[in-house]
Amino acid sequence: MANIVIENIKKSFGAFQALKGVSLTINDGEFVSLLGPSGCGKTTLLRIIAGLETSTSGDVLIGEKSVIGLPPKDRGLAMVFQNYAVFPHMTVYENVAFGLRMQKADDARVKKQVEKAAGLLHIEPYLDRYPNKLSGGQRQRVAVARALAVEPGVLLMDEPLSNLDALLRLEMRTELKTVLQEAGTTTIYVTHDQTEAMGLSDRIAVVHDGRIEQVGTPVEVYNHPATRFVGGFIGNPPMNFITMPVTNGQVAAGSQQFAVPAQGGEIVLGLRGEAVERAQSGQGLDMQVRVAEPMGSHLLLTGSIFGQPARVILPATETVKNGETVGLTLDPKRLTWLSPESGVSYPAAA
Amino acid sequence: MSNTMNTSSTAGFISARRLLFWSGIVALCAWVLVPIYLVALGALGGRTGAYQWPKNFLPTDISLQPFLLFLRTEGVFQSFLNSLGAAGITVALSIALGAPAGYALARYNFRGKDSYRLLVLLTRAFPLAILALPLTVSYIRLGLYDTVLGVGLIHTVLALPFAALVTQGIFLGVPRELEEAAWVFGCTRIQAFFKVVAPLALPGLVATAVFAFVISWNEVFAASVLTVRHRTLTAYLLTVLSESPMHYRFAGGLMLILPSVVFIFAVRRYLFAIWGVSSK
C-alpha cells in the first residue's frame, strides 16, 4: 500500500508538449481515474508513473520515495495493459505467478498467492491452459490476477476494458470494483469512457490537452464541472451551455430569477439535461423542441433555448410533439455558472 | 425441389474447391519432389541407370552401392565436413550478431536508422568477384586462407545483412507491451529479453538460421577462391565433377540437396508459430 504524489510533471515529444505540468496527489488505498479524450496525455502520465516513459521534468513519489530514474521493477507497482499483455508462451498459472517468481518467492507462497488471485478473478478452471485458448474477457482476468498476485503497493490500469465488447465490459466493471475494493490497493485507472470512471472511482482527474482540468469525486465533477470542457466531456447527453444576459446581478429564466456572480453583460449557464422539470403552461424557460425521442426510461428532447442548441431529459410519462414549445423549470441547486470569456466556472453557491 | 438443387450445386462448389486445393498441393509437391527424386534415381542407379534411355521411372534397379562408392572417393567426405563446419559458423555468427542488430532496429529509435538499414543491404551490392583478389591477399596475411573458419567468416558476411533485417521484422512482431509487462513484473531488460522476447521470437530465429545455413551451403564462388585443399563440398564438386561420370554427378547433387532437406525437416516445428500468436 502506498500513496502517490505527482509533482509538476512535464513531457515533450520534440516540439509537442504532451504534459504541461501535472500535479496530483493520490491517497493510500484510493481509486483515481485519469479521464480524458484520446491524445490528452493520460496514458503518457501513467507510463511515466510506471517508469516505461521518462518525464522531461517533475517528480513522482510512491510511498514518500521519489521513483524518478528507477526501472519499473523497483517501483513496487503492477500494471494491467490495454491489450492484456499476458505471456502467450506460459500457462495461465505461470502468467499469474510471473511477478512472484521474479521476486524469488518460494513455491508454497507462489501457489498460495496464485490460488488467491485466481479465486478472486474466477479463473481457477483455466490455470493449466495457454492464453490462446482463452477469450478476451478471460485473458483480461488473467492480466488482473497477475497484477494482484504480487500484492502491489500501486496498481496501474491502462484502459483495461476498452477491448471487451459492451456487455462483457459492464460485467467486468462491476467485478473489478468488487475485487479492487476487497484488495484495497491504491489504483490509477486510465480511461476515455466516462461511465467507467464515474462508476469505479473514488475521485476522477479530468485530463485535457496535457493538463488536469479538475479533480473531484464523480458527483462533484458531474454536477459542478470546473470548466466548460469537463461539463461537455462528462455526461450523456453532455451539459448544455446557454449564454444569457445579466441585469443587476440577476438572470431571468421564464418566471424564475437567479442571482449570479456577475453584475451585467453576459454569463453562461451550464445546465444538466435532467436538472429541469416541465413548467405550468405559460411559465418557465421556453424550449423550442425540434425532435422528441421517447427512450423508454426517459424522454430526450433536442431543440434550442435562447436560440442556442440544447438537449434536456424529461420523465418518460411526459408527451411532447416535434416542433412544440415547452416551458422548463430549472433546479436552482444544480446549475453551474461559467464565465463566457474563460469557460471557467464560478464556485458553486453556498 | 429447388432446395435439393441448391444443396447439390453447393456440394458441387465445395468439391470443386477441394479439387482445386488438392491439385494445388500436388503440383507444389511435385515441383519440389520430382527433381529430387530424379537426382536420387540417377545417383543410386549406377552407371547403367544414369545413361539408360528411355528412363525407368520406377526404383527397380537401384542400390546404395554407387552412392557409397562416391562417398569413399577421396576428398568427398572431408569436404562434406568442411561444408558443415562453414555452415555451422555462418549460422552461429549470423544469429549471434544479426539478432542483436535486428532487436536494436526493432526497438530503438536512433539517428541514421534508415540509412543504416540501406547500408547493410548495400554490402550485397558489391560483386564478390571484385573483392576476390584483395580478400585472398588479406586472408593469406591473416592466416585465414584455406581454412574452414575463413570460409565461414565470408559466408557470415553474406548472410548477416539478411539476418539483421529479417530478425528486425521478427522482433517487431513481438508486442512491445509483453516486454513492458515483463519489466513491470520484475525483469531487467536482459531478463525480459530471454524470458519473454526470445521464446516468442524462436520460430523466426530458427527460420533465419535455416536461411543462413542455406546461403553458406550453396555458396560456391568465395569457397572456391579462398580454399585449395580444405574445400567445401560445393567448391570440391565444382572442380571434380566436370571430369566425373554421370552417376557421380548425380550422387554429388544428391549430397548437396540432402543436408538442407534434413536440416529444414529437423527444425520445421519451429518454423510455424508454435503459440499461434508470435506475430500478433
Keywords:
heterodimer; A: 350 residues; alpha+beta; Rossmann fold; OB fold (Dihydrolipoamide Acetyltransferase, E2P); 2 domains; six-stranded mixed β-sheet; five-stranded antiparallel β-sheet; 8 helices; 25% helix; 34% strand; B: 280 residues; mainly alpha; MetI-like fold; 13 helices; 78% helix; disordered C terminus
What would you say about this model in short?
The complex is a heterodimer of chains A (350) and B (280). With 350 residues, chain A is an alpha+beta fold.
**Gyration radius from CA atoms of chain B, angstroms:** 24 Å
Indicate the CATH class of the largest domain in chain B. Answer: Mainly Alpha
Distance between the termini of chain B: 47 Å
What is the molecular shape of chain B? Answer: flat
Supply the number of helical segments of chain B: 13
Biggest sheet features of chain A: 6 strands, mixed
CATH topology of the largest domain in chain B: MetI-like fold
Strand count of chain A:
20
**Helical region count of chain A?**
8
Write down the secondary-structure element order of chain B: HHHHHHHHHHHHH
